[in-house]
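Tutorial, part two.
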Amino acid sequence: MEEKLVEIKKITLELLALMGIETEVTVTEDEGYFHITLAECETSGLLIGKQGETLYSIQMILSFILKNKLGEEMKLVLDVGGYREKQKGYLESIAEKSYEKLMETGEAQYLYNLNPSQRRVVHTYLSEKSGVVTESEGEGEDRKLVIKKAE
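Running the prediction step on this input gives:
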């Protein structure tokens, strides 16, 4: 396992070097996921991009490179300067407000413009609440998360 962590770090540093970025990289493994954390740097905002889009794209590219070099698919989570934890807190607060509004009005609540991992955060958070169900509807850019009372 240690060799894998070292190799993932090495390949991540090589990719960042090709992008002209120097920062510290930490790699850990937890429950089958490899967490790659980049220290906050002057290009953190650029690495994250609008709503984390660049971060998710880099993660996908890194996953592709690792599969080709190491010969196996790996579940990766790439983070820059704690962005994902901040994002998780933000998404959970939106989920809580939507839940409260649902309980108050009885009307289904809709959350738009969330990528799959953001929808997963909301689904997971609300799965611990009683009297509510969540589901994703639509396709592609029109996909939305629906929060409604359990029947």
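The chain has a mean pLDDT of 92. In part three we will examine how such features are distributed along the chain.
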